[in-house]
Structure formats: C-alpha cells, structure tokens
Amino acid sequence: MFLRKKKEKDFFSEFTLELKRIWADVLFVYKNFIWWTLSKIVIYLWTLVLWLIVMVPFAILISIFGLFDPIKWLSIFSTSVASQDLLLQALANNPVWFVFMLFLFLVMVLAFLIATTYYLFLLAKLYSNYVKWKLLHPKKNLYYSRPHILTFFALVSWTFVYTLAPAIIFAWVIFYAFGPYNIMPLSTSSGAVILFISLFVFIASELYILYRVIFAFVIMAFEKKDDPKLWARAYIKKSIELTTWKSIFKFAFLVVIYGVVLSPLNFTQDTLSIEIDNMQDAIAFKSQAVENIDSGDVKYYEYITKKYDDDSQEDLVDRSVLYSRIIFLLVFIRYFLFSGIFVLLLSSFYYHVLLRKK
After folding, report:
1. What is the per-residue pLDDT for 2?
2. Is the pLDDT of residue 139 over 70?
3. Domain final position from 123, 142, 161
4. Using CA atoms, how far apart are residues 248 and 246, in angstroms rounded to an integer?
5. Distance of CA 272 to the CA centre of its chain
6. Do 267 and 210 belong to one domain?
7. How far is the C-alpha of 253 from the C-alpha of 172, rounded, in Å?
8. Are both 62 and 51 inside the same structural domain?
C-alpha cells in the first residue's frame, strides 16, 4: 500500500515537472511571437510552392482532357428527365475518360494532403530547436531534403496502413451485422447497442494507433543529420516503443487542456455561424408568405419569425455582416495565436516526456 502511494506521488510530481517544461516551451514561442509567425508563414508558403510544383502537371492534363469532354453536362442537368440516369449512362459510355479524370483529381487531392502533412513535419523541424530554446532563422525553414521527403512519403504510407486495419474490421462488422445477412437489425435495441459499441471501439482503436505511430514524424524531425538514419518502419517502431500506457494518460490530459483553451473561440465562432444562418433564413422568410413554407419547416419558421419579429430586413443584413466580420477576426486570431501550437505540444511532449524515458 505504501509503495503504491509512493508510486502515485512520484507519477504526479514527475508529470507536474514535465508540464512546467512544456509550458515553458509555449511561453518561449509566444515571447518570440514575431519570429515564430514569420517562420510559420515561410513554412506555409514553401509547402504551398512544393504542392503547386507537384500539382501543375496534373492540372494541365485535367484542362487538356476537359477540352475534349465527351459528356454534355448542361444538357444532362437541364433536362426534365431524371438527370441521374442520364449521367450514369454518359459515364458508362465514356469509362476511360471518366476513370482517367477521376485518377488525376484524386492525385491532386492526395498531393494536397501530403503537402499539408509535410507542413506539419516542417513545423516539428522548427520546434526541434524551440524546445531547446534556440531560435531558427526563417530562411532555414526552406527545408528541402530528398531523402527526408522520400522517407516522409513512406511514413505517411505506413501510417495509413496502420490506421486502415481498424477501419477494415469495423466495415466488416457493420456489413456482416447490418448488411445483406441482416443478422442484427438496426431498428432493434440490440442492433443499436452493437452499432454504438462497434463505433466506440473503432474510434478508440484509431486514436490509440494514431498516438502510437504519430511521433515517428517528430522523431525524424528531431534528427540533426541531413539524411534520415532509419527506414520509415524503424521510425514507427521507435515511436511505438516510446509511447507507453503511462504516457497515453499524460498526453490525453495535455490534449484536454489544449481543447479547453480553444473552446471559447470555437464556441463563439459556432454560435455566430448559427446566428448568421438563422438571420439569413429570417430574411428569406420575411419576404414570402406562410403558404410558401414547406410543411416540415413550419415550426422552424414560427421560431425564426418570433425571434426576429422586431428586426427589419436591413437590421438583419447589417448584423449578419457584423457577425461575419467577427468570425473573420476570430479565424485571424486563431491562426496567428494557435496555429501550430498542437505540433509544438507534440514536439515538446516527445522531448520532455518520451525522450527522457529512454
């Protein structure tokens, strides 16, 4: 009993010290706010340029093939006949063109996702200096290393493979239970419980696996050498070795604190967005009679008209514009104050918590 209490005391005292170190890194970043912001902008522009370089050839191909588009889209969607059937027939008559265009589009989307992830990797590279309280000149953020990029692509691929396994299992359970076999009808209470448990296990397993492998990118970013020392799977293996059960609770607590700090901004932005939508609906409702409202929207119409009964359309328009400007200001504040902070927390957690346990 005494040893158990002593271990708990050591755990909390140790975690308190680690939180102080992480908090010191956050303060260091905000004390050098201008330098940090310039670095983020440079990194963002650099990854944008890399994405454009990759995307341009595929965009040119899409434009060329678009000139020879065999599908008459306007005639399909303007006809009185069911456009869905005509569209499926047109696609079936031109499968090669459609598959090739779909392939080019998916490549562009994949390039965008990889560029976004590479932006986070460059941030981790920047924070590998910040957690040691060393500033890095923004020009040095133009980081281009062919071996690192190839290893980075391999890391992204392996991470996708690791996180894909629970998705396949979840899809198989849903298909087997609620698909053609209909073993457990969703309309029954047992079916709903099975669905809820399966969804919970799926989300929990995805988050758990992502936590175990995500630090592979941070480990590679902290390397001082120009060339990666390890293969992609070796980085993932090292990440799995460092992320123990005890560290999961520490990191979860850190994520909760981060969410609590951001919650006022998120709540205000969501509230204003809902209010703008309501006011736009009120403007539309005020310009038409009750008979023109769909039967399913009658209660909503009564709620909106009662809420904004004393407001004219001009007042609602002015207030919508004001709220839109406030939302833009909140997005601006969120980007400059909090963009990249989560990557800093990952880097600081790795340096002060995981790395010191080796």
Report:
1. 44
2. no
3. 142
4. 5
5. 22
6. no
7. 33
8. yes
Are 29 and 130 within 8 A, CB to CB?
yes
Task: Give the span between the Cα atoms of 129 and 62, in whole angstroms.
Answer: 42
Residue positions counted in the chain = 358
Per-residue pLDDT, averaged over 74-94, amounts to 56
- Residue range of the domain that includes 163: 145-243
Same structural domain, 165 and 231: yes
Quick one: 159 exposed, middle or buried, by C-beta within 10 A (0-12, 13-18, 19+)? buried
pLDDT of residue 122: 85
Beta carbons of 220 and 147 less than 8 angstroms apart: no
Nearest-CA neighbor of 330 among 270, 262, 269?
A: 269
Q: What is the pLDDT of residue 3?
A: 47
Same domain, 170 and 184: yes
> Are residues 249 and 346 located together in one domain of the fold?
yes
**Residues 81-86: contacts with CB within 8 Å, 24+ apart?**
none
Q: Would you state the pLDDT for residue 65?
A: 66
Task: Identify residue 177 by its one-letter amino acid code.
Answer: A
Dist. CA 101–CA 71, nearest whole Å: 12
Residue 93 DSSP one-character state: H
pLDDT of residue 289: 47
Q: In this structure, is the dihedral angle defined by the CA atoms of residues 67, 69, 72 and 73, taken in order, positive or negative?
A: negative
Determine the Cα–Cα distance for residues 152 and 212; give it in Å rounded to an integer.
Answer: 17
Q: Tell the residue number behind the tokens 């158990």, with chain if given.
A: 4
Rounded to whole angstroms, how far apart are CA atoms 123 and 107?
A: 24
Cα 355 from Cα 358, distance rounded (Å): 6
